[in-house]
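PROTEIN DATA CARD
Card holder: tRNA (cytidine/uridine-2'-O-)-methyltransferase TrmJ
Chain length: 245
Origin: Pelomonas nitida
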Amino acid sequence: MESARFILIHTSHAGNVGATARAMKVMGFGDLVLVAPRFADVLCHEEAVAMASGAADILARARVVPTLADALDGVDFACATAMTPRDFGPPTHEPRSLFAELAARESPPRLGLVFGSERYGMSNEDVYRCHAVLSIPTHPDYGSLNLAQAVQLLAYDLRQALGGFTVSARTPDPALADARAVQGLLDHLQTALVDIGYLDPAAPRKLMPRLNQLFNRAALTEEEVHILRGIARQMSKTSAAAGPK
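Structure generated from the sequence above:
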């Protein structure tokens, strides 16, 4: 299933081919096959390359074949995509649950995901060639998806069924200020508060212990301590420049 094949039938818009390549690459898939596209040179079309946005290698490796039978050569389990279930044909599944079931098999199949044309979707004959129909759960009043959007959703669900990718580690948390740095800030801030007349040394009213508790709860970083000390420094400078009151 890691080598799943994405098959586009009779696609007519070069941009959708490029966007499909991009959707595949970000989820780690690379086998793209086009069945009788509207334009024979669609893989090298300027719009396709532009919409691929870094996935031009997928376009370079992609193949164009005349029939769906050719595209399914080597595929063990083919999934058609359709907005609504059919009265006749293979069973319809929600993608995520089917992918999970296939991935859990002792010998997972080589998967083929088949997408119809932008305007007409898949013909009944093409659907009948597949083992299952995938219906993406959408709002019941509006289920129209762009071709590349549908590819992206299925590629994501398939990748998740295969274990997903590890999210890149975020930027490490900044270093927390130690108790000595916080005490230095409190001493500095106390001087500044006296300078501006906010704190009366004769009647402090537990202001500094309360600020100490506030800073402890905030878990100040070293950079934040530097910022607050800079503010305290400027408070004292401004008070001195203003002169005695």
